[in-house]
Amino acid sequence: MNVNYKELAKKYGTPYYVYDFDSIKVNYHAIKDAFKARKSLVCYAVKANSNLSVIKTLANEGSGADCVSIGEVKRALKAGVPNYKIIFSGVGKSDEEIKQALELDILMINVESEAELFRVEIQAKELDKKARISIRVNPNIDPKTHPYISTGLHENKFGVDIDTAKRMYIKAKNSDFLDPVGIHFHIGSQLTELNPIKESSVIVADLVRTLKVIGVEIKFFDIGGGLGIQYKDETLIDPNEYVQAILETLFGLDVTVVCEPGRYIVGNTGEFVTKVLYEKNNGGKRFVVVDGAMNDLIRPSLYNAYHKIEVLNKMDKEKLNCNVVGPICESGDFFAKNIELPMTEHDDLMVIYSAGAYGFTMSSNYNTRNKVCELALENSSVRVIRKRDTFEDQIANEVEFLN
Questions:
Q1: Checking DSSP bridges between strand 270-282 and strand 16-20, what pairing results, if any?
Q2: Measuring CA to CA, how many Å separate 321 from each of 285, 289, 303, 312?
Q3: Strands 220-222 and 178-184
Q4: Residue 80 DSSP code
Q5: What angle do CA 61, 87, 18 make, to 5 degrees?
């Protein structure tokens, strides 16, 4: 990224996130343009990075939004995404969330179970509205990814099997308050193999053909997201090959293809910059202690995920084994273990790459630490898109009890 990290640290403090908005737009169009020969809707997965400026930038490029809470739906609307381009997904929607989604008249609610279909019908009836729905089908295909981000197997909590889906579509077709317009599958995140995606699409497309025979006309064929990015040495799926593989399964079907990329659009566009506090040795083990922590970027602690790390201006120095750790009072507070890095000094800056997805959006105030600021690089200039927390921000909603 073409920024002066030290100047940004001096001006805004550390740690901080910085995102390349020009690259975000390029990545969005790489997916959108791959669908140019077919009716399509790209809905950015808001959970990957829910900053309003990120969503607004994508909305300006024509993107819709895939949301997994009513809060994300409201974020998308506030950022300028039209309601007819918003999908509400997620396993556990409350009655109030369903009601609000119906009142906001979004494109469709993605239903995950028979029980949820029942709740959607009840809320639609109370509002005297017809709820546009899709049903998430679980094709039971191994996505070959980390088990925590696998979603397409029967052992996962997401979606329903084929037979259950058929029952749900028949019920929806016969309901005065449900309109089954879509079908959805999403087998996992950080996918690097094309075959599981294509196999899943074959299964779901066949179901669409079966449904058509019984009078259920599916208009939206939602293939989910999950395209992987390069954290280390992964072999990636080419967007054009990805789209062609999907389209090959849709012969004879007149549907709009919906795609929900998140990580692919923002993951490699973001970096997390943290400052070295000092080094220490415990029984011969070297620790580099930085001012960032697991509350800022939890992926290494949660998934044992790899992120490339560099110490600025010392890339050509001799490298020695170490753990990079933060100030949180947890043994799990680390960014890397047994990594080779040069010797560091107080105030050296460290860049953690590929942090644009599931970075800030999963951060917390654990240990009463302030959430960091977020910066955007666009057209060679940098601006603040989220201010750093203050202590007062953290306690603003707490009730003070006085004796």
A1: antiparallel
A2: 8, 14, 21, 17
A3: parallel
A4: T
A5: 45
Q: What CATH superfamily classification does 35-261 receive?
A: Alanine racemase (3.20.20.10)
Query: For residues 256 and 214, is the Cβ–Cβ distance under 8 A?
Result: no
What is the CATH architecture of 5-17+268-394?
A: Beta Barrel (2.40)
Taking a C-beta distance cutoff of 8 angstroms, is the pair 138, 160 a contact? Answer: yes
Cis peptide before 342 (omega within 30 of 0): no
Averaged over successive runs of 10 residues, the pLDDT of the chain (403 residues) comes to 95 98 98 92 98 98 98 98 97 96 98 96 98 92 50 60 94 97 89 87 94 96 92 90 93 95 97 98 95 98 95 90 97 96 97 98 98 97 97 90 58
Which residue is it, tokens 């602690």? 301
Q: Which two tokens stand for residue 158?
A: 């997401």
Query: What residue has token string 């753990």?
Result: 323
In angstroms, the Cα distances linking 346 to 46, 114, 294 are 36, 57, 20
Transcribe 111-179 into DSSP letters: E-SHHHHHHHHHHHHHHT-PEEEEEEB-------S-GGGB-SSTTSSSSB-HHHHHHHHHHHHT-SSEE
The pTM (predicted TM-score) of the whole model is 0.93
Residues 6+ apart with CB under 8 A from 295: 328, 363, 364, 365, 366, 367, 369
Helix axes 70-78, 52-60, angle to 10 degrees: 60
Give CATH 2.40.37.10 domain extents, the chain.
5-17+268-394
DSSP for 346-364, please give it.
TT-EEEE-S-SSSSGGG--
Tokens of 149: 């981000």
pLDDT at 152: 41
pLDDT at 126: 98
Positions marked active-site: 329
Single-letter amino acid, residue 99:
K
pLDDT for residue 12: 97
Q: Tokens in use for 303? A: 């998934």
Cα angle value 201/220/114 (rounded, 5°) = 80
